[in-house]
């Protein structure tokens, strides 16, 4: 070998060594062991329906947030159609987790393993609120995966998904955790799942499949994507393992899911409301109304309270409260920290139970509302029919709002019912005028309104 050839071969060898070392030093993960060990527990789910629903699955979410359950090209009308999704085995005796929207309305469910063996599955139970379902197949010593013990997942952490996007069996995609605790309320404004957001490529057919961490534990169940094209654009959402674990345990025991229930309608606290309630910054869930006979009423919670911690967990926004309350076992006594009259107080509450077919009221709390005389609006007494219809014993109704006034800037509308100004209940026009007259100029005060039957709070700045 001449000197030139020796130099080239030596350089090539060093280049190969340098490339390998660089890859190792880069910290990029190697997923091959996880894929080899965990793929056998991931299954393809084939669903037959005589009368299938819409392609996008659950219609209660915005169009851009597509469930990724998709039907194949349809047969002639009147014949059964086949849909598909993914799932994973969590016990050796055949329990399988998938999405509710994958099996919803199914006439039959077939589970296909990685070795192409097939089983007919029984639907043990479903939970539409979390979009989870529990199946079971008749088997023993089956391959299985484990749900992670807690939600100690970090933003930026590597994760990977295994599933059957567009029917392509056992496809693997990887990415990182983009965010945690994402709130994606349904059209019915229910919000019980603090979704994990990732940039893992998730597509139709991945529904119900597992999201793994680098330890090979399932940290989430793939459920939704944000898309304008029907395919992945790097915004996917998964149900966290703690939520899945809670749902699975209940479905195993009873076939249905009961959630913790507080019995309040809530809204977010914005900067204006934070100032009016004496908070340093916007935080907590503002109680707009308390349901009669609810755990909240029994604990002495009132409209206008701001819940800042619940059972030791902080409540940064109103969306956080249903996530926490829903996971608490009904009947448990917990401590709640509230802000009332600019003071921090604690209350003990026995959490109630919200059954599978019951609903809990909540509000996304976009503010709008009120004031009078010096505040720039005219009000009248509320007639008896309005009082009865809205379940209130007193208040005033807004009949006019002066453009550019404090009331207008706060978003007060004609027809709003005002039941509270600052901390003072409003029973009549006379009481309203007295309360408004005593307000200090320059301060921000909360007003409680009823608008089109829905209660809410807004913050209003009193003119100097």
Task: Explain the overall architecture.
The longest helix is centred in the N-terminal third of the chain and has 23 residues, at 3-25. The protein contains 10 helices and 29 strands. Strands 1, 3, 4, 5, 6, 7, 8 and 9 form an 8-stranded antiparallel sheet that branches. It has a 6-stranded antiparallel beta barrel with strand order 10-11-12-15-14-13. Strands 17, 18, 19, 20, 21 and 22 form a 6-stranded antiparallel sheet that branches. The termini are far apart. 19% of the residues lie in helices and 34% in strands. The model is unreliable at 52-80 and 360-372 (pLDDT under 50). It is an alpha+beta fold. The chain has helices spanning 3-25, 32-38, 100-103, 241-254, 271-276, 295-298, 320-326, 384-390, 406-410, 429-438; strands spanning 42-49, 65-67, 70-71, 81-89, 95-98, 108-112, 118-120, 122-127, 132-136, 158-163, 171-182, 195-198, 210-212, 218-226, 236-240, 259-261, 264-268, 285-290, 306-310, 313-314, 333-340, 343-350, 352-354, 377-381, 396-401, 417-421, 424-425, 444-451, 454-461. It is elongated and about 80 Å long. The chain folds into 3 domains: 33-254, Thrombin, subunit H (Beta Barrel), CATH 2.40.10.120; 259-354, PDZ domain (Pdz3 Domain); 373-461, PDZ domain (Pdz3 Domain, Roll), CATH 2.30.42.10. Strand 19 (306-310) and strand 20 form a beta hairpin.
